[in-house]
Amino acid sequence: MRLDKYLCDALGATRKEATKILKSGEVTVNDAVQKSGSCKVSDECVVEWQGREIQKPGPRYIMLFKPDGFVCSHEDGFNHTAFVLLDEVKMEDLHFAGRLDVDTTGLVLITDDGKWSHRITSPKHKCEKTYRVWLADPIGADYIEKFAQGIELRNEKQATLPATLEIVDADEKEVLLTITEGKYHQVKRMFAALGNKVEHLHRERIGHILLDEALEPGEYRYLTQEEIDSVWK
Ligand code: URA
């Protein structure tokens, strides 16, 4: 594909705008400045503008380390939306593949591919999500068994599906919980049903995709092809 077409598709720019961007000398292909729109780019090329990688034209797949205090929606009259953390074009096309509460931190996936996100969020596919949880009160001896059996939540007809609880540090009241559903405030309500309280919640994994340890809160990166494809497995 020609570089000017690549920029038009990836940035939603007109051909005239793409030419102007190229003339500025701020576009590199594999670290070399390219000013010519006719330069050919292949799938293996890394195209950057002002030092930031421009994702290939086509669907976008992003992992964000959501910090505390940001909501997973486009609009919120009170809190910041996590979208302000993204430096992306055509923001209105993007959506969250599963939300986190405003005070929950960790892995969120963002995309404009509805079929892909449906695979993650649809209850039918039972996609695993792992949360690191810090509790207010000591971990009950019966918790592992109770989570495995399913927990009855207030205002829900059916108990939760079997979930896996791993105790990380009993003194610090720290556990890892893996669930396959995404009911409203599910993790907090599960612990509340056992008389405990979640002090802090952090999502580490969705399916086979782990929060990249190189990311700081508020940072994001594009998913690798392997991570994207893992959702279909
Ligand atoms: N469960 C919760 O209670 N909150 C979240 O943000 C995610 C899962």
Question: What would you note in describing this structure?
Answer:
- With 233 residues, the chain is an alpha+beta fold.
- It has 3 domains: 3-53, Roll (Structural Genomics Hypothetical 15.5 Kd Protein In mrcA-pckA Intergenic Region, Chain A); 61-123 and 209-230, 2-Layer Sandwich (Alpha-Beta Plaits); 128-206, Alpha-L RNA-binding motif (Alpha-Beta Plaits), CATH 3.30.70.1560.
- The chain contains 6 helices and 15 strands.
- The strands form 3 sheets. Strands 5, 8, 9, 10, 11, 12, 13, 14 and 15 form a 9-stranded mixed β-sheet that branches. A 4-stranded antiparallel β-sheet has the order 2-1-3-4, with no helix packed on it. It has a two-stranded parallel ribbon with strand order 6-7.
- Helix 1 packs across helix 2.
- The two termini are 30 Å apart.
- The model has no long low-confidence stretch (mean pLDDT 94).
- Uracil binds at residues 100-101, 104, 185-188, 201.
